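Entry type: protein chain
Record version: 2
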Amino acid sequence: MKCVYPLNLNLTRYWFFHKMLRNDLTSRIKYFFIFCMTALVLVPLVIPDSSFALEVISGNQISIQEPIQDEVVIFGETVYIDAPVRGAIVFANIIHVNSPIEGDLLTAGRQVTVNADVSGKIVAAGNIIDLGGKSTNAILAANSIHFNPTSMVIKDAYVAGGTINNEGNISGQMVAMTDDFKNNGTIGDLDIRSQDSMMPDMEGWLSLFGILFVIGFGILGIILVKLLPNQFDSVRLVMKKSIIKNTVVGFLLIILFAVVIVLSAITVVGMPVSAFGLLILLIGLILSSLMVSFVIGKKILEILGRKSSGGDINNISSFLIGFAILNLLYIVPIPYFGQIAQVIVTSMGFGAICYTVRKSRSPVSNDKTTI
């Protein structure tokens, strides 16, 4: 499977190379979580509400020749949908939709071709997208996007691409983010936005989103501290024993998790393992900084002469103090200081969590040997 796709979008180049590589590690993690949160929001919107029945299909060459009354989730190299389905989520290299879809279509691949009606919305991302048939709404992102003469979008279309060519009929509004647009069809209301002109607005929104994200992260920490006080305290006790050991072990475990996730995702069989491993890693990374915030706050209260009690008010106060200190630490205007601090904090918390889980399991094994 060839995985090198010549994506020439100015927006894509700016985003990854300017924002992701030049900014500090905190920003990279924030943008990664934003992507994950966006995916979690989009998937329920794409899946029809009538019933949550899914049929998962995976393989190299997949061809659907008989009607399927359920929504389908497909992973493959080449996918042909030649019979009606209720709704489809497709991840493949080459995708051809040649039969009507009753619900929504969510797809990502190198080449996506839709030659049939989709009663719901189409959300597609890839290198080349060729859209035909009728759909309610279309949200597309690709290097080359083509609405062929048989295509019809009943409502609105939102597209971003290197080149966009419309020969179809779009009844509502079309918002196109591109520097190369051709229109030989019909559009109700056309709004073309240059990719370069969008950058200042996007930076402002991302800054605001970053602030709101930190606030939401703090609220999540307060909720978890109140619900899981014993677990937070257990991690604190483990972290007090050996900070350096926890940090080194945590850093190595994060790398190990990442390697296992990538290797598992290479094969179709390993995709469920990769998805589960990614979920565990994300949970661990989220909890890491929250746990370290709690530990730092507790330590500061002890230095100030405040007794370390297990009450909710004391625990929440400890967390908020540590959380504020860590976030101030991340924005210190010293080159690479925030990046190093983020790596240390995440590794320290991750290692302490792993040691706590291991310690909590050990009494069980001892009990089994004594019985």
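Comment: The chain has a mean pLDDT of 77.
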